Amino acid sequence: MSQSLLQRLEGQVAIVTGGGGGIGGATSRRLAADGAFVAVFDINEAAANAVADSVRAAGGRASSWRVDVTDRNSVSAAVAAVESECGGIDILVNNAGLARQASFLELKDEDWNFILNLNLTGYFIVGQEVARAMVRKGAGRIVNVSSLAAHYAAGKQAVYAAAKGGVIALTQVMAFELAPLGISVNAISPGPVATEMSARNMSAHSRQARLDRIPQGRLGTPEDMANAIAFLASPDAAYVNGTTLIVDGGLLRAGIRE
Q1: What is the reported pTM?
Q2: Domains held by the chain: number
Q3: What is the structure's pLDDT at 258?
Q4: Residue 75 needs a FRET pair 20 to 30 A away by CA distance; which of 38, 45, 97, 176 works?
Q5: Is 160 a catalytic residue?
Q6: Catalytic residue among 123, 152, 160, 239, which?
């Protein structure tokens, strides 16, 4: 593993939910490269194990946990174990999520409830459990992963956009309430990112429409998102709180077209 600038997260402990996926995996590896011990949380145990293995193979430190972020008992047990084994928790990246597309008039109750539970309630559950551990330590940084879908209207995105918009609102309230306790809370809103999930959910037409509008001329990478998350989790962002950083290559400002 290459030496990161000053190993700015040396001695810190980070939890990354959805850590076995594209953005989560890249974030786990980036935080480990910056010196943190990373606990990779994912409902897909094999994916979590693979990311933790890759961190260790590169010289970093990591553990992996099968965690259902929508299950309070699952989250509580894993968080308590990490806190006990590592002596505290310094960083949380709330990243676990999934998108399902359906037009507003055809969206089913079960899909609405599933996506909202995973993409918003899960953030609340994990955020609350980890924040309580951070209060015991007296400091912490939380980064919630929202989406560009929270900032504009698009077809078949009702529940995903609602959930990710809720993440931004939740971030602001968490930041307000937790700052006096030494905990900062921020969010990022990724634009189109080349991941397996986006490949499933983005049509060829939609992908090309975005590529045509992104001023930087390419989709984002998981590493682009991990770099932004690492900044917000680092001492460099000591006076950043309650903000949402849009990481989209300029797409939102250029104007999205379906």
Answers
A1: 0.93
A2: 1
A3: 58
A4: 176
A5: yes
A6: 160
